[in-house]
Amino acid sequence: MSRGHRAKRKIQIGDKKYGNVVISRLINKVMQDGKKSTAEELVYSALENGAKRVKEEDVNAFFNKAIDNIRPALEIKARRVGGANYSVPMPVSPRRQETLAVRWVVDSARKKSGKNFDVILMDELAAAFIGEGDAMKKKMDTERMAEANKAFAHFRW
Q1: Beta carbons of 99 and 28 less than 8 angstroms apart
Q2: In this model, does residue 33 exceed pLDDT 90?
Q3: pLDDT band at residue 65 using 50, 70 and 90 as cut-offs
């Protein structure tokens, strides 16, 4: 594999309703089988009802606070040094923080069943807003693992 050639990053446009790029990524993550309009309906319904539930007037502020609460500061990456694999804690770039937060919210919502997806997603976002929920647990576990492997931080490069 050749090194040093990175794919150019597309400039993403915001979603139709709020103009927020991260909401656009959430819609794309929720989308299945190319049904974007269905994903948009689910996400917008979840965002609006979630903002009402936590008594937040601005949907953008509600969503941004929920995602900011889930963003991990550290993660672990496997490094091979001298024939042994080490879990090395690494700082997370802001773009990857958003990606991981959106992924964790959608994955934790998909694992649950019994209600409509927009209700489950709303519950997960509302829980993230107040610092609870499965996505928040995933963040805490990730950061706890990174903290536990701090002894291997000198293998970072």
Answers
A1: no
A2: yes
A3: very high
* Euclidean distance between CA atoms 99 and 79, whole angstroms: 22
- 14 contacts 21 by C-beta, under 8 angstroms: yes
What are the backbone angles phi and psi of residue 54, rounded to the nearest 5°? Answer: -95, 10
Positions of E strands within the chain: 74-81, 84-91
pLDDT at 147 over 90: no
Q: Where are the domains of the chain?
A: 21-155
Token pair recorded at residue 28: 């794309």
Name the CATH superfamily, with its identifier, for domain 21-155: Ribosomal protein S7/S5 (1.10.455.10)
Q: How many CB atoms within 10 Å of residue 148?
A: 12
pLDDT at residue 107 in the model: 94
Q: Which residue has the tokens 């879990």?
A: 87
- Name, in order, each residue with C-beta under 8 angstroms of 118's C-beta and a sequence gap of 6 or more: 41, 42, 43, 45, 46, 49
d(CA 145, CA 151): 11
